[in-house]
Amino acid sequence: MDIDAWVWWLIGAAALGIPLVLTAMPEFGMLSVGAVAGAVTAGLGGGTVLQVIVFAAVSVALIAVVRPVAARHRSQRPELATGVDALRGRTAVVLERVDASGGRIKLAGEIWSARSLDTSQSYEAGREVDVVEIDGATAVVM
Fold first, then answer.
1. Is the C-alpha dihedral spanning 16, 22, 28, 29 positive or negative?
2. CA distances for 67 relative to 21, 24, 82, 87, 131, angstroms
3. Which of 31, 69, 112, 123 is the most exposed place for a label (fewest CB within 10 A)?
4. Residue 108: helix, strand or coil by DSSP?
5. Rounded distance, CA 50 to CA 33, Å?
6. Contact 104/113 with Cβ under 8 angstroms?
7. Integer Cα distance of 40 and 43 in angstroms
């Protein structure tokens, strides 16, 4: 009961797929694709040396090309801001005087507690201010 080389390559590809699922490291997936390429080479009658070369070449090429692209996509911020991230940079209207110790603003149709970013600044009712950040349930404005 002799098992063909291409079957061993497919077993190797499946074995490399297990850590891919468990660790979410895409490199294992790229090695697994390389093993499938080795299986195809074996199935087409390529020798052992050629199978290993194809495995290595495909794996290295995928890691060299796909990994930087994936890292670039992972580091990009999402274009759609939600929650408090969507409130940063918005304009609000002062309802009650806002200074370093507090106040109230109307932001996105809701009333928020607010404080000024610059402790020496104060903003009177009716004035428009820009939201710099959200600190807990308080908008920091300038």
1. positive
2. 17, 13, 28, 34, 38
3. 69
4. coil
5. 16
6. yes
7. 5
Hey, where are the domains in the chain? 5-75, 83-141
Instruction: Give the pLDDT confidence score for residue 36 in this predicted structure.
Output: 95
What gap in Å lies between CA 35 and CA 54, rounded to an integer?
9
Q: Which of 4, 63, 77 is nearest to 33 (CA)?
A: 63
pLDDT > 80? residue 54:
yes
Instruction: Give the CATH class of 83-141.
Output: mainly beta
Query: How many Å apart are CA 119 and CA 21, to the nearest integer?
Result: 51
**Residue 78 confidence (pLDDT):** 67
Cα 122 to Cα 30, 95, 98, 126, 127, distances in angstroms: 58, 13, 6, 12, 10
The mean pLDDT value of the chain amounts to 91
Calpha distance 129→4 (Å, rounded): 73
